[in-house]
Write the structure tokens for this entry.
Amino acid sequence: MTEPRQTATMMDTSRPLAVDLFAGAGGLSLGLEQAGFDVAAAVEYDPIHAAVHEYNFPYSAMFCRDVTSVTGDEIREGSDIGSREIEVVAGGPPCQGFSMIGKRALDDPRNALLAEFTRLVAELRPRYFVLENVAGLTVGNHRQLLDEVIGMMDAAGYDTLLPYKVLQAADFGTPQSRRRLILMGARQGLAAPRYPTPLYLPRRIDGVLPEVTLFPNLPIGPSVADALGDVPDADQFEELLAADQVRAEFATPSDYAAPLRAMVPEHDDYSRPRVFRPDLLTSSARTVHTPASIQRFAATAPGTTEAVSRFLRLHPDGISNTLRAGTASDRGAFTAPRPIHPTLPRVLTVREAARLHGYPDWFRFHVTKWNGFRQIGNSVPAKLGRAVGLSVLCAAGITPRKGDLCRSGDPTLLSLTATEAQRHFGISDRVIPQRYRKAV
């Protein structure tokens, strides 16, 4: 059994507390922090992802553990939470299977993590819970899973807000099409939260603008160009062939990008300010393409799919398609398709993908492209998580406030190998299978 990791940066005890289960690198943690929470504790099974979370949220107690082995009492005792009230427990349990007719869906071992989420909510007794998952969980036999989760929450003393919602991240200012199921609930007797309503009219992937006359009070959402226009071209730096960061000069940012560079504040972002170098281009290791690939990418019209790779070339006036994570090492370690840059004949860098997800530039990912893209593709866009978190605080009657300054963690956390990350968290046995590369 490993002890939780927490660095010298302390939790802000004046802010409401959140616990993030299945935290990954911290997309939902970031959204909740931006809403006004301090993420007092997080649980993540993969040591590489847990190390990246520790870097970005050094005030949070990281439990690098299988969630089935963690109890609510351990989370309270191993963090600064103690006996304090937890405002929300949130998380997105992986869900890979569904049951046959006549069998409880949660009896399927592939779905057991949903039951573990409900168990920890019952043990931690937060005022609210937020469950996020793939939109496909609402379709066909998968809906039985939701019915069982809602029943378990009811038995644990929580009222689930029904009907549940599938929210589109682009509706909340993310320049990416990404639909996520959100299930929210409150401890019985408390005011129920509301599912957030759209704040923007999203653009189409092919760059066609929405019909403004249908919703005249909503602004049009940001575009791919808004997200990427100021980011330097990684291919101009030889250093990025062997590293993921370099000093660079950025162009003038858009209204969307300026807050991500900490140049202007956002009115609804209550996150803790970070110290970072604005002249440093990070998470930008280059991908080397063949001359034939470069030629095909250059000939592909924006908003269309390149015929050989099947990669979408992003349209500068549109939004991105859903950024995928690829598969973990125990499922083949396949790399997900990476979109082609809208104006350059190459695929996106990790930083450019992060911009399309709403991550600020201070947020760092693992130095390898494979892990970095997995960490983005598996995460909740920050603006969507922020909208959900603000809804919880509104129901609780809490006025959010800006958090205290937070210094990032040890940068060596971003380059740990799987073995080094396991050693960092005191894990003796390999928990994530080795990634094997096929010979080419």
